[in-house]
Write a structure and sequence with these properties.
There is one protein chain. The protein is mainly alpha-helical and about 190 residues long. The chain has two domains: about 90 residues, Yope Regulator, Chain: A, CATH 3.30.1460; about 60 residues, no CATH class. The protein is about 55% helix and about 10% strand. The protein contains four helices and three strands. Strand 1 and strand 2 form a beta hairpin. The termini are far apart.
């Protein structure tokens, strides 16, 4: 009987009670004890077998083998489930921390961009207009006409900056046209 209980006894203590029922009938109860307060109650389920002394001698060892194997299997299953839940909880916490960090980084980046004054925004360097081409007797009429410079495209963070950029482009184009007129007049 103790040989069959040995694997269970390595993990927890067991209470064994033997009770006399009738003339030649006995009942044997094997009750595993809780190790800690947080133990699952399923691990303290008792086994009870009744019969005559001869019946108990025959059946008790096999009953205890089945009971101990079921108990250890249940313990292993509960341990695996607990480990899986702990791993999942750690993964969820790590994911939540990463998400919070990403949101904080985005918020900080948007605050930095919003706090920059309009003059601090990047503006491309003004382009120098091409030197005016002189009319050629042998060139096509299209080549002799100076082409108007393409409008500058300045990225704008909001509508006010877009309006300012548009006004600056028009001013640059007007200055270029004035310079071309002065060069034409001088020629």
């Amino acid at each position: 009987m103790f040989k069959e209980l040995a694997p269970l006894l390595r993990h927890r203590s067991v209470l064994i009670t033997v009770t006399h029922l009738e003339e030649d009938q006995f009942r044997v109860n094997v009750v595993p004890k809780k190790i800690a307060e947080g133990d699952n109650n399923a691990l303290t389920t008792a086994v009870s077998i009744s019969g005559t002394a001869e019946d108990l001698d025959e059946q008790l060892p096999q009953t205890l083998v089945n009971f101990v194997s079921s108990h250890l299997e249940l313990k292993n299953t509960l341990d695996r489930a607990k480990a899986d839940m702990d791993a999942a909880a750690k993964a969820a916490q790590a994911e939540a921390r990463n998400k919070n960090r990403n949101q904080a980084a985005r918020k900080d980046a948007s605050n930095v961009t919003a706090s920059k004054p309009a003059s601090a925004l990047e503006k491309p360097a003004p382009q120098k207009p091409e030197a005016p081409k002189t009319a050629s007797l042998f060139g096509s009429p299209d080549e002799s006409q100076p082409s108007a410079p393409a409008p500058l495209s300045i990225p704008a963070a909001n509508q006010d900056e877009a309006e300012t950029s548009r006004e600056e482009n028009e001013e640059i184009m007007a200055n270029d046209e004035d310079e071309e007129q002065d060069l034409d007049d001088a020629a």
